[in-house]
Amino acid sequence: MGMSVQGSGKGRTTMSEINVTPLVDVMLVLLIIFMVTAPMLKQEQRIDLPQASSPQQISEEQLDSVVFITKESAENKSVVFRGTDIPYDKIEFNQPIQQSERIYLYADRSLIFQEVATVLSRLRRAGVKNLSIITNKEE
After folding, report:
1. Which pTM value belongs to this model?
2. Strand partners, 90
């Protein structure tokens, strides 16, 4: 921000101008930061879902309560909840899971049912009363 004086002597007038260059620089840096971090905020898991005849839509706010079991996580004996890997033996002690009113289970169709049953029983022991399994619509 600067102020320039025009003229000399008695006829001087002040002309105030705002230098917006630093503001533009800051805004461009913030834009770049948001462009870089935005893709990291989306937590996606590639899962081949089983099919059912009457699946219901899940809303954006319900996505925060989804437990993912992928083939890779099942091999490691863990689930993914809110972007964090949780081992099977820690599920019932996980505070965010215990505080969730409803949990949605997103399980890969290629999993052995024993893996899904293990996670379901651990979620029940964690105190989850409402469990839903997410599926695709039959074609």
Report:
1. 0.55
2. none
Q: Which residue type sits at 102?
A: R
Q: Which CATH architecture has domain 51-137?
A: 3-Layer(aba) Sandwich (3.40)
Cα dist from 19 to 64, 91, 121, whole Å? 44, 56, 63
Amino acid of residue 127: G
Angle at 83 between CA 93 and CA 71, to 5 degrees: 90
The two structure tokens encoding residue 79 = 């689930």
Average pLDDT for residues 7-24, to the nearest whole number? 76
pLDDT tens for residues 43-74? 555 655 556 566 667 666 677 778 888 888 78
Structural domain boundaries in the chain: 2-41, 51-137
Longest dimension (CA), the chain: 92
Asked if residue 110 lies in contact with residue 47, where contact means CB atoms within 8 angstroms, the answer is no
Residue 94: exposure state from Cβ atoms within 10 A (0-12, 13-18, ≥19): buried
